Amino acid sequence: MFAEVRPGRFTAEMPDEFVVFLIGMRINRPWKLAKWWPAFAAMPRMRRWLDRHPEAGLLHHTGAWLNGGPAVVQYWRSFDDLARFAREREAPHLGPWKWFNSAVRASGDVGIWHETYRVRAGEYECVYGNMPVVGLAAAGAHVPVGTRGQSAARRIGAWPRDDEAVPSYPNPGD
Question: Could you tell me which CATH class the domain 18-119 is placed in?
Answer without folding.
Answer: alpha beta
